């Protein structure tokens, strides 16, 4: 039996808010009871609700990723007074030649919108960890540059952050599970990042 769509995407695994439709009833959004045929159902493809197994996987994924992001945010706020996304931007700059990246490149690397990046960089500037510089070849372009103070904050924070990631994720998985997880996430990311022009991607908004 197909399951109904989850009305609350943030609900925890095992929540009673999402259940399979009772036998002989239609799933949410359907006009027909399962197993019945009407003139419209003969021409309209049936919606592909998640199976019970797929729903368990989806809920487990949502549950784990939400808790993991919260865990890392709390660790970084406690140790460095910054959210996880700001730490990621500092890492991207530290790994770039000369500690600098075009704002457009930084948005692409961080997979966030340009407006969200602008807000984050403004906060990092206020802390003295990043500065912006105009691009000589493009009057509308700007570079984000990691400052010496920002580099020091990153060096001081990185060990604790790596420990948090390792304890929360890698220490719980076998080497084979780690490899599978990496391959699965790569497949998902590639599917959500098409190459064609006009793709709706965060850093292009």
Topology:
Layout (H helix, E strand, L loop, with lengths): L51 H29 L3 H12 L4 E3 H8 L3 H14 L2 E6 L2 E9 L1 H21 L6 H18 L13
Antiparallel strand pairs: 1-3, 2-3
Helix pairs in contact: 1-5
What does this structure look like?
Helices cover 50% and strands 9% of the residues. The radius of gyration is 23 Å and the shape is globular. The chain has helices at 52-80, 84-95, 103-110, 114-127, 148-168, 175-192; strands at 100-102, 130-135, 138-146. It is built from six helices and three strands. The model is unreliable at 1-41 (pLDDT under 50). The chain starts with 51 loop residues before the first helix and ends in a 13-residue tail after the last helix. The longest helix is centred in the first third of the chain and has 29 residues, at 52-80. A three-stranded antiparallel beta sheet has the order 1-3-2. With 205 residues, it is mainly alpha-helical. Helix 1 (52-80) packs across helix 5. 12% of the residues are buried. Strand 2 (130-135) and strand 3 form a beta hairpin.
Record keyword descriptors for this entry:
single chain, 205 residues, mainly alpha, three-stranded antiparallel β-sheet, 3 strands, 9% strand, globular, disordered N terminus
Provide mean pLDDT, rounded: 83
| β-sheet strand percentage | 5-15%
Rg, rounded, reads 23 Å
Oligomer: single chain
- Overall 3D geometry? globular
How far apart are the first and last residues' alpha carbons, in Å?
40 Å
Structural class: mainly alpha
Strands in their spatial order, largest beta sheet: 1-3-2
Short description:
The protein is mainly alpha-helical and 205 residues long.
């Amino acid at each position: 039996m197909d399951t109904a769509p989850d009305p609350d995407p943030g609900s925890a695994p095992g929540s009673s808010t999402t259940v399979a439709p009772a036998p002989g009833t239609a799933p949410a959004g359907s006009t027909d009871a399962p197993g019945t045929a009407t003139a419209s159902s003969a021409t309209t493809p049936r919606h592909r609700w998640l199976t019970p197994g797929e729903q368990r996987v989806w809920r487990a994924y949502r549950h784990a990723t939400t808790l993991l992001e919260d865990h890392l945010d709390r660790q970084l706020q406690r140790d460095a007074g910054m959210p996880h996304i700001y730490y990621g931007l500092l890492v991207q700059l530290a790994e770039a030649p000369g500690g600098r990246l075009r704002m457009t490149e930084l948005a692409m690397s961080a997979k966030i919108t340009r407006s969200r990046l602008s807000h984050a960089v403004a906060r990092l500037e206020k802390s003295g960890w990043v500065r912006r510089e105009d691009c000589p070849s493009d009057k509308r372009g700007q570079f984000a540059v990691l400052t010496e103070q920002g580099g020091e904050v990153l060096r001081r924070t990185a060990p604790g952050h790596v420990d948090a990631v390792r304890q929360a994720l890698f220490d719980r998985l076998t080497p084979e599970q780690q490899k599978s997880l990496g391959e699965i996430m790569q497949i998902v990311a590639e599917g959500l990042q098409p190459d064609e022009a006009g793709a709706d991607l965060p850093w292009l908004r």
